[in-house]
Task: structure prediction
Amino acid sequence: MLRYLTAGESHGKALVVIIDGVPAGLKFDENFINAELVRRMSGYGRGKRMSIEHDKVEVLSGLRNGKTIASPLTLMIVNKDYKINQLPDVYCPRPGHADLAGLLKYGFDDARDVLERASARETAARVAAGAFSKLLLKEFGIKIASHVISIGNVHADLGTRTLETIIKQAELSPVRSADPKASKRMQNVIDDAARRGDTLGGTFEVVALGVPAGLGSYTQWDRKLDGNLARAVMSIQAIKAVSIGAGFESAGKKGSDCHDQIFYDKKKNIFVRDSNNAGGIEGGVTNGSPISVTGCMKPIATLMKPLVSVDIRNKKEAKASTERSDVTAVPAAGVVAESMVALEIAREFLFKFGGDSMKEIRRNYDGYMRELRRR
Ligand code: EPS
Result:
């Protein structure tokens, strides 16, 4: 089974991810992984840290001659801004951050012990793991991309765009909205928020193309792919809601407007749909349509014009602490969510097609795809 754990603090020596359950014989492409790390650091509204770091992976285990050998793969990203022991204590927890909840839970006297691990810097390690999963999925024609739908109250107009255009644009310019006009307005509201010492959230969509029907399962709650995708994307720092396909909009639709009717394409020998409100998943199982996952990110909790808080030393009212931070990180969250989606799809992919070697996976995949076309 594909599983992974991350370690590391925001200003510690390094971030590390250990990926276990890796099939043998997958060609490792370090440049691709590093390019994904750069995508995560990009986007309008990111803070100064992004110009300090040059995230790139160092492989500590799991490869021989550029290929996986089925042993755990360990990837490390060194922090240039390593200064955890020199940083000041933090006594005024930021509303919306893990500061206070973490202080109460672990009995700390200072929120620095919380925020160093709670920081979204940890997502660099997830993106390294996600990029590795993308390498595996790419071998079987599966592509994953994301685009920004909204920042603050500015929404992209996606009405006339096809999914393919959105994906193409997301690939070319992954840190922007798929609607260039909205991009400009988004930049303006980000500038405005920065001037006011405020922060912004937003929404993004992750789309996976080329995922075969039949991944996930309806037979047990913890094998439902929609449930696992929702958990994975919700676990990203500052994410407050996740939906699949039409999501919340489904509640207001009639059954006749909501469900994606089934047709048979005799030329291609496949079942097809003319809509995708299900977001590619029915009964927790992929149905062959593109997978669509939307995430909502709340505004970053570090405000340069701080909110009211309490000094934990004397319990008196005080301004929340301030740290160097981002004004918004919605495009980056989209890139991280791509990684989480890639990891979940890769896990189910390996369940379905067997995970020991690329050769074995290829044989099982080809056989299954042939079967699907014979039905
Ligand atoms: C982040 C690194 C951090 C922040 C941000 C994400 O860098 P620093 O704290 O050194 O300025 O830019 O972290 C947070 C939003 C947070 O709440 O901790 C990164 O690499 O993504």
About this structure: The mean pLDDT is 94. Residues 153 and 202 are 8 Å apart (CA to CA). The chain is about 35% helix and 20% strand. Residues 10, 47, 49, 81, 119-121, 123-124, 300, 302, 323-326 surround EPS (CB under 6 Å).
